[in-house]
Amino acid sequence: MALESLKAGIALILEEIEKRPDDRHVLQEQLREKIAEFRALGLPVPADMRKFEAQLEDDDADDLFDNMPI
């Protein structure tokens, strides 16, 4: 049951990211917390979630340079 609940929570967060791109950073943090719950429960993190988590990390690294003058 916990697994299905976590998956449903992640699905809701992903929908919100699509609907509210301006709130992406807050929602990404919520997503990271849900993924951490998988790990805390000793559940395997699904491959698509690991891939998405890696993309979030890459996006965050790119955001560091968004306001750099060129």
In words, what does this structure look like?
- The protein is mainly alpha-helical.
- Helices cover 74% and strands 0% of the residues.
- The mean pLDDT is 80.
- Helix 1 packs antiparallel against helix 2 and helix 2 crosses helix 3.
- The longest helix has 18 residues, at 2-19.
- The protein has helices spanning 2-19, 24-40, 47-63.
- The protein has 3 helices and no strands.
- It has one domain (2-63).
In short:
By secondary structure, the chain is mainly alpha-helical. It contains three helices and no strands. The protein has one domain (2-63).
The Rg value, from CA coordinates, equals: 14 Å
What order do the helices and strands follow? HHH
The residue-averaged pLDDT reads: 80
- The residue fraction in helices comes out at over 70%
Shape: globular
Beta strand %: under 5%
Helix/strand-derived category reads mainly alpha
In this structure, how is the largest beta sheet organized? none
Distance between the termini: 51 Å
Query: How many structural domains?
Result: 1
Q: Please count the beta strands (DSSP E, at least 2 residues each).
A: 0
Which regions are unreliable across 5 or more consecutive residues at pLDDT < 50? none
Count of separate DSSP helical elements: 3
